[in-house]
Amino acid sequence: xxxxxxxxxxxxxxxxxxxxxxxxxxxxxxxxxxxxxxxxxxxxxxxxxxxxxxxxxxxxxxxxxxxxxxxxxxxxxxxxxxxxxxxxxxxxxxxxxxxxxxxxxxxxxxxxxxxxxxxxxxxxxxxxxxxxxxxxxxxxxxxxxxxxxxxxxxxxxxxxxxxxxxxxxxxxxxxxxxxxxxxxxxxxxxxxxxxxxxxxxxxxxxxxxxxxxxxxxxxxxxxxxxxxxxxxxxxxxxxxxxxxxxxxxxxxxxxxxxxxxxxxxxxxxxxxxxxxxxxxxxxxxxxxxxxxxxxxxxxxxxxxxxxxxxxxxxxxxxxxxxxxxxxxxxxxxxxxxxxxxxxxxxxxxxxxxxxxxxxxxxxxx
Length: 365
Ligand code: SF4
Description:
Elements: E1 2-8, H1 27-43, E2 50-57, H2 65-72, E3 82-87, H3 94-103, E4 107-113, H4 117-123, H5 129-141, E5 147-153, H6 160-173, E6 177-182, H7 190-197, H8 210-226, E7 230-233, E8 236-238, H9 245-251, E9 256-259, E10 264-266, E11 271-274, H10 278-287, E12 292-296, H11 300-308, E13 315-316, H12 319-334, E14 338-341, E15 344-347, H13 349-353, H14 355-363
Parallel strand pairs: 1-2, 1-9, 2-3, 3-4, 4-5, 5-6
Antiparallel strand pairs: 6-8, 7-8, 10-11, 11-12, 13-15, 14-15
Bound molecules: iron/sulfur cluster.
């Protein structure tokens, strides 16, 4: 069964750690973007009925209720088995929740990142722990209990004590799903550039070391497991039955179609993505051009191996994997980074901590 992804790359601020193609953009662009999206929906030839919907970006919780209802009205598959909207804490209101429910949304992902006010302030976020607590209670009261909380390990100023405080807050709030991301350092975010190139404006000098981040991640896995929220993918943890059906499609090579700027699609054979910026996306639509770029047909076996290795259940080893990666498996098993049972391999806790390096080795095998 397939899924739909919609990108809404408009935000109230540009967070210092964010490396997505999103941010503060002109209001008039937002209106034209909505039109372009609806046009892309109308033009799409559906090969299947989607069972999941994910609206991310960006800050789709900023979309006005009526506008959201209108936007989703043309999409097939309702009622979706899972329909998620990403929200920035501080933007959840009873009116918004009502509109989300009316539009078919049944899961909310809160981009909390941290429960520590001074850590949040340095990223550009304006919420605090009390706001998150209030909004989770409101969501539950109004009938949305399928809630994800995002956390980032590695924010400037984060310490073992403050990280424990954030984990304690998550445990107290008891969401059924938690995503724990390690800070990504690259030139696409202001903080990442500062860490690479030097500077003091965004807190690069206070960024925890790689070792500290690894410890934070391990602590998170332990603290969450302790309350029944188990890891099912490198960055994702859930209570039984609350694993994200939509995101699992990415790792299980099921089809999904992405609409909007920088949205990716996979139809079971071919992959493609849309142009990165909202401005280019709207421009392509208004000129009558396709926003899709970078069409390619990936090697299905290779992909299955790499995406599957992210899952806690691991991946089934085919005869061709055995030929190509056999010696690499042996080496990582010896190093305690992988384990094997019958015809499946998976990363161990130790392997997960260095998963990027492990993937790199397999890529060059
Ligand atoms: S982190 Fe989220 S809210 Fe902040 S700029 Fe990126 S997409 Fe927008």
